[in-house]
Amino acid sequence: MNEVTGAPGTSRPGGRTARVREAVLRAAGDAFADKGIGGVDLGEVARRAGVGKTTVYRRWGTVPGLVADMLAEMAESSLPRARTGDLDADLAALASLILATLTDARQGPLFKAVIAAAASDAQTAAALHRFYRVRIDEWSPCVDEAVARGDLPAGTDADEVIRALSAPLYYRFLVSGDPLDEAAAARAAAATAAAARAGAYT
C-alpha cells in the first residue's frame, strides 16, 4: 500500500526508473542522516546517487517531496508484525523492532533528522504521520486478536496500546538521553501489556 499517493515521487515504476528511485532514496537517507534535512539539497542527493540533477528535480521537486517518498518506501518495506498468538510476546517483538531501528547507526540519525524537520515543515510532518499510521495499522491487529482471545478487556483501543508502547522508547531517543537498550524495551512492553489488561486503553 502506498501511503503517499499523489505526492511527488510516489509512483511505483519498474525497470530503470525503479533502480533510479532506489538509488536516490538510498542517497537521500544517507545524506539526511549525515547532515540533517535542512543541510541537504536535491543537487547533493543527485550527486550521491549518481543520477542527473534534472531527474531528481523532475521526479521529486522538493526535499520534502523526497522525504515523503522515502518514508513511504520505509513503511512499505518495514518488517511485518509478529504473529505469536501471545500478547506479551507480540508487544515484546514490537519493542525490540523499535529499539533496533532507533539504535541503528543509520536509521537512528535519519529518524532524528526527519522528526526535527517535521517540527517546522508541514509536508514532512504529514509524511511522517502517514509513516506511523502505516506502522500502527500493521501492529494493532495483535491487540485486537488479544481482545478476541479474552486476554484484554472488550473495547480496548488497539491503536492506543501501540502508541503507549512506543512512547517511552521515543522519549528516551529524542528527549531524556536515558539509556535506550533491551531493558528499556522490555519494560515498555511489559508495562503496556499490564496497563492494557487493567483496562487503561478501553
Automatic annotation (TrEMBL):
Pfam families in the cross-refs: TetR_C_11, TetR_N
PANTHER family per record: HTH-TYPE TRANSCRIPTIONAL REGULATOR RUTR, TETR-FAMILY TRANSCRIPTIONAL REGULATOR
Protein's name according to its UniProt entry: TetR/AcrR family transcriptional regulator
This protein's record includes keyword Transcription: yes
DNA-binding region: 41-60
Domain called HTH tetR-type: residue spans: 18-78
Methyltransferase is among the record's keywords: no
Gene Ontology terms, MF aspect: DNA-binding transcription factor activity; transcription cis-regulatory region binding
Keywords: DNA-binding, Transcription, Transcription regulation
Transmembrane segments: none
Organism of derivation: Glycomyces terrestris
InterPro entries with a match to the protein in the record: Homeodomain-like_sf, HTH-type_TetR-like_transc_reg, HTH_TetR, Tet_transcr_reg_TetR-rel_C_sf, TetR_C
SUPFAM superfamilies in alphabetical order: Homeodomain-like, Tetracyclin repressor-like, C-terminal domain
